[in-house]
TrEMBL record:
Binding site for NADP(+): 157, 179, 205, 209
Binding positions for substrate per the UniProt entry: 193, 213, 216, 292
Name the UniProt record assigns to this protein: Riboflavin biosynthesis protein RibD
Function (record text): Converts 2,5-diamino-6-(ribosylamino)-4(3h)-pyrimidinone 5'-phosphate into 5-amino-6-(ribosylamino)-2,4(1h,3h)-pyrimidinedione 5'-phosphate.
Pfam families assigned to the protein according to its UniProt record, in alphabetical order: dCMP_cyt_deam_1 (PF00383), RibD_C (PF01872)
UniProt key word Isomerase: no
Species assigned in the record: Arenibacter aquaticus
E.C. code: 3.5.4.26, 1.1.1.193
Pathway recorded for this protein: Cofactor biosynthesis; riboflavin biosynthesis; 5-amino-6-(D-ribitylamino)uracil from GTP: step 2/4; Cofactor biosynthesis; riboflavin biosynthesis; 5-amino-6-(D-ribitylamino)uracil from GTP: step 3/4
Keyword Ubl conjugation among record annotations: no
InterPro entries per the UniProt record, alphabetical: APOBEC/CMP_deaminase_Zn-bd, CMP_dCMP_dom, Cytidine_deaminase-like, DHFR-like_dom_sf, Eubact_RibD, RibDG_C, Riboflavin_Biosynth_HTPR
GO molecular function: 5-amino-6-(5-phosphoribosylamino)uracil reductase activity; diaminohydroxyphosphoribosylaminopyrimidine deaminase activity; zinc ion binding
Length: 349
């Protein structure tokens, strides 16, 4: 492995510590090296806190060494004032002579301006080290700024005979989840929820399961809840409307009144529903969303091509009758066993 790749690889590793906490900012990693020895490391703090480069610089004990060091970072240092001052200015202030960057920042307020500022100060800048790996790492941030929509993950569980839900007569009178997968898979899904900014489900999923859509089986932040409820069928006493987690409800009704933690967004259900939802989520700075059902809601996004990856569990249960799982075509990227369940990863081609 080449020396630059070695340290950018470490930056990516560090950056993953920020997964699920930095939205809408990217989760960046940074390493500072002096004579082939790491003297500082950092990753992006939760939103509103310090960026990776700031944390890396602040971790250096002998600051005099910075004037002979190389700073590595997964994404171009920012050049504008946001919640924090520009990272490029801090690098210049400490007279760090070399900066190695994995990927250009597509944000319109940066987009090469950070590199220009560094070069103008006399800094030696190298760009594009492990660029593909950095693109994969920053896929959520890139989707938001380049595709102008959140990064979209489809997730569902299906039975061994291809059903996503049983017939109504298999359910009890009270709404509750009808589990297809094992507790191991259920816990993994809660981990995924903690990593994404939002979770989206349709009306029938809420009515059938009365889900909480939180991360109670994992540690981390609860995602923003997004409910597609065309005619506002969900009763007000259901968990998703309890105001405990920020919730956005998409409806065709003229409901303008909102309460703390609950926002209603009106869309036209006769025209490109998935695209309209994406536009509203963009407006609300939602960088990533995991769509957990039901079949109709998932199919909205599949048919429109508005999805990036799918994670499909197949359990050992047999329903024989029920609601068929969505039809999906994409690039199969691998499978793994989670207990007795089979998890398939698919990417949109």
């Amino acid at each position: 492995m080449k020396i630059h790749e070695k340290y950018i690889s470490r930056c990516i590793q560090l950056a993953k510590n920020g997964l699920g906490t930095t939205f809408p900012n990217p989760m960046v990693g940074s390493v500072i090296v002096h004579k082939d020895k790491i003297i500082g490391e950092g990753y992006t703090s939760p939103y509103g806190g310090a960026h990776a480069e700031v944390n890396a610089i602040n971790s250096v004990k002998e600051t005099a060494l910075l004037q002979e060091a190389t700073l590595y970072v997964t994404l171009e240092p920012c050049s504008h004032f946001g919640k924090t001052p520009p990272c490029a200015d801090l690098i210049i202030k400490h007279k760090i002579p070399n900066v190695v960057i994995g990927l250009l920042d597509p944000h319109e307020k940066v987009a090469g301006k950070g590199i220009e500022k560094l070069k103008a100060s006399g800094c030696q800048v190298t760009v594009g080290v492990m660029e593909e790996e950095c693109k994969e790492h920053h896929k959520r941030f890139l989707s938001f700024h380049l595709k102008k929509r959140p990064y979209i993950i489809l997730k569902w569980a299906e039975t061994a005979d291809g059903f996503i839900a049983p017939n109504k007569d298999k359910r009890s009178n009270a709404p509750e989840p009808f589990w297809i997968t094992t507790p191991y898979s259920q816990q993994l899904v809660h981990k995924w929820r903690s990593q994404e900014q939002a979770i989206l489900v349709g009306t029938n999923t809420v009515l059938d399961d009365n889900p909480k859509l939180n991360v109670r089986h994992w540690s981390g932040n609860n995602p923003v809840r997004i409910i597609v409820d065309k005619t506002l069928k969900v009763p007000p006493h259901y968990h998703v409307l309890d105001g405990s987690v920020q919730t956005i409800v998409f409806t065709e009704q003229d409901k303008t009144s909102s309460q703390d933690g609950l926002i209603y967004e009106k869309i036209n259900f006769k025209d490109q529903v998935a695209a309209q939802i994406c536009n509203v989520l963009l407006k609300n700075n939602i960088v990533s969303v995991i769509i957990e059902g039901g079949a109709k809601t998932l199919q909205y996004f599949i048919d429109s091509g508005l999805w990036d990856e799918a994670r499909v569990f197949r359990g050992s249960t047999l329903f024989k009758h029920g609601l068929r799982s969505p039809t999906l075509h994409g690039i199969h990227c691998g499978q793994e066993h989670i207990g007795n369940d089979l998890l398939t990863h698919i990417k949109n081609d």
